[in-house]
Amino acid sequence: MQPDIKPWSPNKPTPTDPEHAVFWPFGKLTLVADLRGSLRPDVPQAADVSCTLDTFQLRMVPGFDAIVLKFDRIRFGMRAGQKPDVEVKFGGIDFVGNLAFVQTLRNIIPLDGFSDPPAITVDGSGIHANFSMQLPNAAVGVFSLENIS
Fold first, then answer.
1. Residue 56 CB burial class (10 angstroms; 0-12, 13-18, ≥19)
2. pLDDT tens digits in sequence order for the chain, 149 residues long
3. What's the superkingdom here (predicted)?
4. Would residue 66 be called left, alpha or beta, if left means φ above 0 and alpha means ψ between -120 and 50 degrees?
5. What's the per-residue H, E or C state across the chain?
6. Are 60 and 96 in contact (CB under 8 A)?
7. What pTM does this model have?
8. What are phi and psi for residue 141, nearest 5 degrees?
């Protein structure tokens, strides 16, 4: 199944169909490409590309408010002769709507509580990110989270 991709203009931050929108932009998109060529065969051709998307949200489960992932910035850079680089500055996660009760648990777990920084791998199949963190003991109503490391 392929998602329905809709056009987005940086000057129009509100999605055209808010009820079913996943991507909510609030910042700007910057795309820079430096292409170098030469008529001389001894001078190699090269390209550097940088793309930055600032301040946006991903609202998961469209039409059913559940999770809002906030991003301060995502930057992708590719310089000639080097491997691609991805930088993600995560702004937070909110549980909303029917999952608002989970927000209490989320408030107990700090975003800076990762035991190691996220590991990001970029390859031909896509971008893979993973991390690990310790969870504190917590109780929310009848739910109890204990002894997880």
1. buried
2. 455 555 556 566 566 666 677 888 888 889 999 998 888 889 889 999 999 999 998 888 777 778 888 999 999 999 998 998 988 898 888 888 877 877 776 676 665 554 455 666 767 777 677 666 666 677 766 777 776 65
3. Bacteria
4. alpha
5. CCCCCCCCCCCCCCCCCHHHCCEEECCCEEEEEEEECCCCCCCCCEEEEEEEEEEEEEEECCCCCCEEEEEEEEEEEECCCCCCEEEEEEEEEEECHHHCCHHHHHHHCCCCCECCCCEEEEECCEEEEECCECCCCEEECCEEECCCC
6. no
7. 0.61
8. 60, -125
> In one letter, which amino acid is 85?
D
Residue 116: both structure tokens together: 């190691």
Residue 4 structure tokens: 């329905």
